[in-house]
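tool=predict chain=A
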Amino acid sequence: MVSSKDVAKYAGVSQTTVSRVVNTPNLVKEPTYRKVMAAIDELNYIPDGNARSLVQKRSDTIALISGPLYNPFFVETTTSIVNYANEHGFKINVHFSNDENIEEIYNAIFEKKVDGIILSSVLLEDPVFAKLEKSGIPFILYNRKHESNKNFVEMDNEQAGFLATDYLFSLNHDEVCWIGGPTEMSTFKGRYDGFLKAFQKNNTAINPEKIFIGNTSKENLYQTFLKLEELSEKPTAICAATDAIAIQMMDFYISAGYKVPEDISIIGIDNVKIGQHASINLTTVGISSPIDLGRIAIEKLIKMIQQKNKPCVQITEAVRLFERKTIIKKKKEA
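tool=predict ok
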């Protein structure tokens, strides 16, 4: 197993410097930090606390990297994960990720003694996946998939995007807008691919002015709303890549004096509980199973922790449409 001494020798620095880089990187000069981190990555060094966890008695602790709290999907799945893990004797260290803090979270997790990692932060081509595999720590992705096609629990994202969009076409909406996150994430890519597939099936041309892919924070979504307002030919329906996006767009439209669905139809994907509330009644696509993705994933992870031979988990949950009140059939023009 690689030691801090090996890293120090490879980087040409002292062990004390390696320790500072790992524990107090803010006290290390940038060139030295980069040199040591390159050695750590090259040698796949795991700090002592985590290395000991591979040979000592288990810690009964699982690390969870969840998505941002403004998305109710992650609020619900985090609750499911924590509750199930606690019921089975495991503590959960919860981290909520965003683009700014993900490296910091990974470093914190690899430094600590944990029995397993469950995460929803890996990109399709994320290099951290190789580090996860080499660590020897059981791990599973949920609501995300890496290009290696290993250790994941997801919904059928392409089918979800297709069902949502095709449903809009079936109700005569031919001016459909897509609002989704970065396609470097398997979830958003799959759903967008399904959106495109529905356009192909219905022989409809895509208007680039009605495609919005990027940051899905409230501030950025409001800018998207303003851009839609500026269009001369506005969409009659919005296909949102998540329920969180759909609900936020509903808020913008209603606050601006529009009626949903009379003035604008909106459909989401995920089937989160808040969307089922009578005051929202969001039409959406979600998994057919009554058990959410987080619960399915934590069940599989705990089994992986308890088994000597770690199976490769590959689960894609079937999806279905949940018809509610945010879509209306568009009248055909005479």
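Residues 51-56 have pLDDT under 50 and may be disordered. Residues 1-45 form a domain with the 434 Repressor (Amino-terminal Domain) fold (CATH 1.10.260.40).
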